[in-house]
Structures are given as C-alpha cells and as structure tokens.
Amino acid sequence: MDAAGAHTMIYFIALIIYRVMRSRLHAGGTSHSPERALSKLRRIQRHRVTLNDSQPIAGLRSIDQAQVNILAALTIKKPTLDTQLTLL
C-alpha cells in the first residue's frame, strides 16, 4: 500500500469512528457532539504520586454526571483505579 492509500484508509476509519460516536451519543440522549464529548472525557485523569521512597499513592479524578452520561452513551465502562493499566 502506498502513502496515499494508507492516508485514505486512516481517514476512512476515522470517519467511521466519528459517525459511530455521533450515533451512540444521539441514541444515548446526550446533546454532545463527538468533539465536545471527547473534550469532556479528556478531563478524566489518573494520578500517581511517590514521595521519597514511600509506596506510590494513586488517585482518579472525580467523574461528573456529564462524563458518566457520555460514557454510558458510548457503552464504555466508567474507569476505576483497579482496571487502569500502565503503559510501562
């Protein structure tokens, strides 16, 4: 596959994801666009703090009702500390 074909395939997949998100958000009764929903979901953060040589302390930012509604509309489970996976 050449670069133009790869670019077209990535664009097509992104378009499908966008439309599925838009459809699920609408069916779930939210008034959010996919862009607005992603903007709200980006605020969910997981924190991990280590002071000196102590055990790390982990925390998850509070998830507001709008974020809960968006996750439910997209059929995504609400994140918890127990199910978080690290990349390293």
Report on this structure.
The protein is mainly alpha-helical. It has one domain. It has three helices and two strands. The protein has a two-stranded antiparallel ribbon with strand order 1-2. β1 and β2 form a beta hairpin. The longest helix has 25 residues. It is flat, with a radius of gyration of 17 Å. The mean pLDDT is about 90.
Indicate the topology.
Elements: H1 3-27, H2 34-41, E1 46-49, E2 57-60, H3 65-73
Antiparallel strand pairs: 1-2
Descriptive key words:
single chain; 88 residues; mainly alpha; 2 strands
Write a concise synopsis of the structure shown.
With 88 residues, the protein is mostly helical. 48% of the residues lie in helices and 9% in strands.
Counted beta strands: 2
| Assembly category | single chain
Choose one word for the global shape. Answer: flat
Strand order of the largest sheet: 1-2
Average per-residue pLDDT, rounded, comes to 88
Q: How do the SSEs run, as a string of H and E?
A: HHEEH
Using only CA atoms, what is the Rg?
Answer: 17 Å
Which range best describes the helical content: under 10%, 10-25%, 25-40%, 40-55%, 55-70% or over 70%?
40-55%
- Give the helix tally: 3
Number of domains: 1
